[in-house]
Amino acid sequence: MIGFPKSTFTKTVMLSPATSIACGLIYGYLAYQSFLEPEILEAFSSGAKQSLSSLTKGFSYETTVAVGWAHFIAMDLLAGRYIYFDGLKNDFITRHSLVLTLFFGPLGVVSHVLTRGIVGLTRSGKVEDILESGLKSE
User: What residue intervals traverse the membrane (predicted)?
Assistant: First the structure.
């Protein structure tokens, strides 16, 4: 999406549900593995109230960090797909927002919203959000 946004290969991979399914299966497998380790479950269970100390203890295990990493990658990919397809539909560059999404998640989405706002101002408001257009009945 960052290096070759208009290539057929990139579009095919991003349109394929297999990409999201693979991320989900990897996450599910890692989450299952973490549930097999009683010390991880114990680390997260601090009664009815979660605290930063119980989260810190829970994330001190490699398996839990792997689950968190898979979660971040899947969510970054979901946000990245939105940014990518929105930029393609409206014909503006999204590389900077995609890089920010990869490394800083929500800051990439903020960057994209600001970018599309600036593009909208320079094009007299002719930028359509792909999420909004998907909700409109034809």
Answer: 12-32, 66-85, 97-119
